[in-house]
Design brief:
Helix content: 25-40%
Number of strands: 7
Structural class: alpha/beta
Oligomer: single chain
CATH topology: Rossmann fold
CATH superfamily: Vaccinia Virus protein VP39
Largest sheet: 7 strands, mixed
Distance between the termini: 10 Å
Strand content: 15-25%
Number of domains: 1
Length: about 240
């Protein structure tokens, strides 16, 4: 069960410069990631796609960035019409609208309220999002609320934050890019961005969802966070009667 005393996680206020750097680098990463980190992007997108339901209509993507994942989906006209990209930042949402004018784009915070009825979506996607949320329990409750309780799925990709392999990989990739671009330490940025480790995320999801499948990357046959970079997780929502009181 959730330790309610640690949620939401509270952090010192950023300076105005740090706020600008944070927003700038997040957007910059979304523009370079598909080209510079193709191997990782392939895993992220393919895991979500291969675990989608055989039949579905409505998709909600949490933290859709610039809509990169949507380029990889094979969707019918009806499925595209009912695809909702929820993004926190308006400047990112504008990029989604430009890239995908035929889908729905909502600006909002999943830690507050998802503006949708209960049981609305057949699929909920969160790729490299849950590690960023200081009020993760509230987000999971909202995701559970809007996920269809019979045929719904919740597909997640998270980094192996805190693991040896992930830490080494970051030092020679994203950290190097950040420090070269801004001429300042990466530490304050990543400590503010990746606020949740894999076990914390699982602990908040499992009261509401059942784990259906799991896949580690790149060492698929060594299922440990210390030696991998990412984990794909696919869940089904529990029935309301199965929830812990």
């Amino acid at each position: 069960m959730s330790n309610h005393l640690k949620w939401p996680k509270i952090f010192p206020e950023l300076t105005e410069e740090q706020k600008w750097v944070r927003d700038d680098f997040v957007r910059y990463l979304y523009t370079i990631f598909p080209k510079k980190f193709t191997f990782l992007e392939r895993f992220n997108n393919n895991y979500i796609i291969k675990n989608r339901p055989l039949s579905f209509t409505k998709t909600l993507e949490i933290g859709a960035g610039l809509g990169e994942h949507i380029f990889h989906e094979q969707l019918s006209d009806l499925q595209r019409k009912n695809y909702v990209a929820l993004e926190l930042r308006e400047n990112m949402a504008a990029g989604i609208r430009k890239n995908h004018p035929d889908i729905q784009v909502w600006v909002g915070d999943c830690q507050e309220k998802i503006p949708a009825p209960d049981h609305e979506f057949d699929r909920v996607i969160a790729s490299h999002v849950l590690e960023h949320l200081p009020n993760l329990p509230k987000a999971i409750k909202e995701i559970y609320r809007v996920c269809h309780k019979q045929q719904g799925v919740f597909s997640v990709v998270i980094p192996c934050e805190g693991g040896f392999g992930y830490s080494i990989g970051r030092k020679v990739s994203v950290q190097r890019i950040f420090e070269k671009r801004y001429q300042q330490p990466y530490k304050w940025f990543i400590e503010r961005e990746h606020v949740n480790i894999p076990q914390e995320i699982l602990d908040e999801i499992q009261p509401y969802f059942k784990l259906v499948s799991r896949e580690f990357f790149p060492l698929k046959f060594l299922p440990y966070t210390w030696c991998n970079i990412s984990i794909g997780l696919n869940f089904r929502p529990k029935k309301i009667s199965e929830l812990d009181n």
